[in-house]
Amino acid sequence: MLVLPPAYVDELRSLPSSIASPTVAHAHNLMGSHTNMNIILRNNLHFRTLVEKVTPNLNFLTAPMQDELDYAVEKDLPECEGEWVSIKPYHVILRLVSRISARIFLGLPLCRSEEWLEISTEFTENVFVSLVVLRLFPMWTHGLISFLLPSSYKGANYIRRSKKLLVPEIIRRRQETPSEKKPEDGMNLLSWMMEIATPTESDPSDMAHLQVVMSLASIHTSQMNAVHVLYDLASRPEYVEPLREEIIQLIKEEGPWRQWQKPAFSKLKKLDSFMKESQRFNPPSLLSYHRVMLEKHVLADGMVLPRGAHISMPVSAIQNDPEVTSDPEVFDGFRYYKLRQREGERHLHQFVTTQTTSLNFGHGKHACPGRFFASLEIKNILVRLIMDYDWKLEDGKGRPPNLTAHEFIFPNPEANLLMKKRRKELLLDSVVPDAPVPATRTEPETSVEIETREL
Ligand code: HEM
Asked: Which atom belonging to ligand 1 lies closest to the Cα atom of 47?
């Protein structure tokens, strides 16, 4: 793999994907031939649905997200009124994120299916185990090794199970008459996929497969960010009150949080900053901006990128360079909040902002299309967890150290935090606005301004 400095990002951005392909790079990174991920090489319906339907409709998706979060909190968080209870945030947050994602991907009632919740989380874990193992061996051995790897056939089995579950649902939705549909029925990824699919993309079995691909792209990535934030907050409790004050202030100005839509969440600038700083300290991967060169290309300074080369950027090294981030070794949760106060930088330095020096979501037209969704989902979860619960580390223990595998970094799945429900009058739903604020309904957005949009 050719790891390039960020000076080349802008030049690389201008190359079409027929020369520098992100998709071939993703398939290669995920060992697609042995992990059922090569479908992305021939079908990008999931990507288009995200850009054309999900992101422009995020305003309408806030209410179902919150509704599912209520259900998830009820089902998956322990009773902890008046007493500290130990939980494993990795597993608990995975349940919350997978439930909310399922609600937006499939809609009610299918999102509550335990079968789907298992498929959408366990497939990813098995793909990850397979790729970590396979990468240790030369490529010519991969066929044989994956034949022997339990994670490999378990992964394939999850794809089969997803088809068994979703294909009949796709057929049922196709046969449904308009009078049988409820208003919320069309507002989910699966129905939107069915709506915009071209004839060659309309195979129900492929659509089911792509739902699993989307789960892989979205659930663990968002869950890991939320878990890192919780670990960072528990180990730096001085940030909790300012974050709560920001939420309370926003309720006073914008109305109860249950009426908030995407623009209100974008006003949580301190929380946004904390999420970004936490991501800087705990990036999902040391490398990003992966491309495979489908043709040889010579860069302006004469650097040759040969055909077949896999290139990437050292995202973590870049954002920890003192020329990019001052005092990079200091965790400053409100670093980006402060930067946004500078003239002309109000829209920069957001969690979702990508720049040549901020590449955790990639950059340019192939940057992660799900980051606006991720930001909204993570903020919904964190607002609830910060306002309704106190958090602390186990006695005598520091922030749980991260684990690494190859270039990947993830929060320790077996670490514990202690949580306790706050007094009733302090809870999120008890905070009332200064004056009644009318609920607003906003039209879907028609375009996605990638570089400058707020969220
Ligand atoms: C904190 C959470 C997330 C992180 C850190 C993350 C990161 C990334 C990165 C680094 C890429 C590759 C960009 C490139 O090619 O340069 C990517 C691609 C992608 N992400 Fe995300 N992502 C997150 C959440 C999500 C969510 C929630 C969704 C879906 C709702 C999603 C859907 C996708 C898809 C479909 C692609 C592939 C784009 C393509 O085919 O070119 N991601 N993501």
From this structure: 35
